[in-house]
């Protein structure tokens, strides 16, 4: 089956809920890794101990332990489909105005240059290339800090190419499916709803009605494999896209995760909730 047929095939099955195995086990060569999409929200989540960060920590204990992680973050958009190929990725502080403690945090994991180089070749159709200097941005390390706090698993990042359409981003995700049979965990890190211009920082902020509605629409679209909604670009037909994503980079990592899912996967939502009224923190597990 070629990749474009593979993309079509992922629409064929509507998935049911999955149950997490409470025992931590190592991924074997015959075991397919799950795929994750994590809402990352504020960089401050790296410092927080709450229901959201606790669920990420629990995921790290319940899914099979990967031999490597590939992260597609909302905070790396490039002119090509780039792969980070650094031996020791630096911790990137791509934000401002936060407490000093946050800038003192590091995530000292290894990289995997050989994996990055192999993936760049595998993704040549999408202008795959390597970046030997790229570190981990906060879309990656703030979540990995809770998922694998010992930083003992190699991590590479995959950049979203600004040249690709929504459908092509999905195709790149489908091209990553084989990694799951090699003990490699694929993570998309973004937010299903992301509008910083309409956040409400008050302690008792009410979730905006439009954000709740859009989050629910995407949840249902994932369950039904509804690409009409998941890839919606007609913002007249789907007006909630305009307010939910003034810019699209926080949504697109979901397409990589969805593309890397298969017909035999089920879809579940380990966490549902909002941050500051207009940021969906929903997580999605394909397993």
From TrEMBL:
<keyword id="KW-0862">Zinc</keyword>
<keyword id="KW-0560">Oxidoreductase</keyword>
<dbReference type="InterPro" id="IPR004183">
    <property type="entry name" value="Xdiol_dOase_suB"/>
</dbReference>
<keyword id="KW-0479">Metal-binding</keyword>
<dbReference type="GO" id="GO:0016702">
    <property type="term" value="F:oxidoreductase activity, acting on single donors with incorporation of molecular oxygen, incorporation of two atoms of oxygen"/>
</dbReference>
<dbReference type="InterPro" id="IPR014436">
    <property type="entry name" value="Extradiol_dOase_DODA"/>
</dbReference>
<protein>
    <submittedName>
        <fullName>Extradiol ring-cleavage dioxygenase class III protein subunit B</fullName>
    </submittedName>
</protein>
<dbReference type="GO" id="GO:0008198">
    <property type="term" value="F:ferrous iron binding"/>
</dbReference>
<feature type="domain" description="Extradiol ring-cleavage dioxygenase class III enzyme subunit B">
    <location>
        <begin position="58"/>
        <end position="273"/>
    </location>
</feature>
<dbReference type="Pfam" id="PF02900">
    <property type="entry name" value="LigB"/>
</dbReference>
<dbReference type="GO" id="GO:0008270">
    <property type="term" value="F:zinc ion binding"/>
</dbReference>
<keyword id="KW-0223">Dioxygenase</keyword>
<comment type="similarity">
    <text>Belongs to the DODA-type extradiol aromatic ring-opening dioxygenase family.</text>
</comment>
